[in-house]
Design brief:
Elements: E1 2-4, E2 10-16, H1 25-43, E3 48-53, H2 56-63, H3 66-78, E4 81-87, H4 111-127, E5 134-139, H5 150-174, E6 177-182, H6 193-203, E7 208-213, H7 214-219, H8 224-234, E8 238-243, E9 245-249, H9 255-262, E10 273-277, E11 280-284, H10 287-291, E12 302-308, E13 318-320, H11 322-333, E14 342-345, H12 362-382, E15 386-387
Parallel strand pairs: 2-3, 2-14, 3-4, 4-5, 5-6, 6-7, 7-8, 8-14
Antiparallel strand pairs: 1-2, 1-15, 9-12, 9-13, 10-11, 10-12
Helix pairs in contact: 1-2, 1-12, 2-4, 4-5, 6-8
């Protein structure tokens, strides 16, 4: 979906396809047919943007076969779909029964992360629409914190500088300008936007910036205006923003609240949980740890890294951090000029939600994602952006 900002610039809205398990190229093509095109039709649009997730095997198939890449681009066109952004964070196995800590491997100290992201960049130059010259890729925020030795982090920063140089060369070769956004996430080396300032100013490459995920922003109790203003002041490019909402528990000490939270404690994804006390932010790596007695202070609100559907807040006594998303979006695109032109709805947890929220059929999932995109569209038009055909 395309929008015209009042300053005349083009803003893209997509939804991320990592919600659909697709490890191979054939599965990606089937995903376009079974999910992406039906969502476009459900919205009544001639064109729908998707933030494509390409697992390792799918990416290698495209990287090594120009004909396959051309065929995928033709398939996108045929189904009324377009790609200006890729989700390069998960490497493989995102549809596995247990993902948890595996999603952080390989990290940026591993040469395979550089190789894979370089491949994604080359692929994206072949997928961009004919009238678009700018693309974006979101990626891992360096590494999970427990493996972050100084030597490994220096290796990671060097790899990102190398990637920036490769993107420069790719732009000269193809005329397509790509940027990479490190995506802060609780528990990682870069947990918050504030944590991103030092490494990104150290790298100091215009093609290496940040991807602001509003679920992660909220989980870490960051104030959106303060966080985004600091990025702008530091000159850090906001390459992309993922529009998502976290789970919020205002009174985690209450038995009914803890019972409601327990329904979101599931074995597939990591659900980092944070609270903000007078002494600062505290947290656990997973919701189950937080629910254990005294594992996390419960006199202040908790926020949990669960991407809940934007249009359907969980039932009381829980709620979502949709207001944080709305505030962030106002700062991102509601000013005289957009701070980011690539926006992506990313609710990948549909199949891991409690039973009463989980779609039971493909049609229900289609309706849910379409409803999320409709909400995001309304937020954008309320900010003065004009939806384009």
């Amino acid at each position: 979906m395309r929008f015209r900002h009042p300053d005349g610039s083009l803003v893209h809205l997509a939804y991320c396809t990592n919600v659909h398990p697709a490890e191979t190229l054939d599965a990606v093509v089937a995903q376009l047919r079974d999910h992406c095109e039906p969502i476009r039709r459900r919205l009544g649009r001639d064109r729908l943007g998707i933030g494509l997730w390409l697992a390792k095997d799918a990416a290698r198939a495209l990287e090594n076969d120009p004909c396959a890449l051309a065929a995928l681009r033709a398939e996108l066109d045929r189904r009324g779909l377009e790609v200006v952004t890729l989700n390069g964070f998960p490497y493989e196995g995102f549809g596995s029964e247990q993902v948890k800590y595996r999603v952080y491997k390989p990290d940026w100290a591993d040469p395979e992360r550089l190789r894979h992201t370089t491949a994604l960049a080359r692929i994206l130059t072949g997928l961009l629409p004919d009238d678009i010259v700018e693309g974006s890729i979101s990626t891992l925020p360096l590494a999970w914190r427990t493996v972050a030795t100084p030597a490994r982090m220096e290796t990671a920063l060097t790899a990102l500088r190398t990637l920036g140089d490769r993107l420069d060369a790719l732009a000269e070769l193809t005329g397509r300008s790509l940027r990479i956004g490190l995506e802060p996430e609780p528990g990682c080396v870069i947990e918050t936007t504030a944590d991103a300032l030092t490494p990104l100013t150290y790298i100091a490459h215009p093609r290496i910036g940040i991807c602001v995920d509003t679920c992660h922003l909220a989980t870490s109790f960051e104030d959106p205006d303060t966080a985004l203003d600091a990025l702008v002041h530091a000159g850090v490019p906001i390459v992309k923003s993922q529009l998502s909402a976290a789970l919020h528990a205002e009174h985690p000490h209450r038995p009914d609240v803890r019972e409601a939270l327990t329904a979101f404690d599931e074995p597939r994804f990591l659900h980092q949980t944070r609270t903000l006390t007078a002494t600062g932010r505290q947290g656990t790596d997973d919701l189950g740890e937080a629910l254990q007695h005294s594992a996390l202070p419960d006199s202040t609100p908790w926020r949990t890294h669960v991407h809940v559907p934007l249009h359907a807040a969980p039932a009381a006594p829980l709620t979502s951090t949709l207001p944080v998303l709305a505030t962030a979006l106002t700062r991102l695109v509601g000013g005289p000029h957009p701070l980011s032109r690539h926006l992506e709805v990313e609710t990948y947890t549909w199949h891991a939600l409690p039973a009463e929220l989980r779609p039971r059929t493909r049609a229900q999932l289609t309706d849910g994602i379409a409803a999320e995109l409709s909400l995001a569209r309304d937020l954008l038009t309320d900010l003065g952006l004009k939806e384009l055909p």
